[in-house]
Amino acid sequence: MATRKALDRRPGPLPDIHTDGDSVSFTFDLADLDARLIVRCDGHGEVYIRIPETEHQPPYPFTAGD
Prior knowledge:
This protein is about 0% helix and about 35% strand. The protein has strands at about 15-20, 25-30, 35-40, 45-50.
């Protein structure tokens, strides 16, 4: 089991904030992960959260035909 890091109580970096019409999106880089968290709030009070898949390169340069 992996050990958890203790909280250091320091603020992290600010998210990227974007507006699109009546929606506001906040994009966070997740610490120690190769991932991002996107939180979108629309004008009706709905909140949507997603972690988009990252594009991974194969660990080796072989193809299935090799």
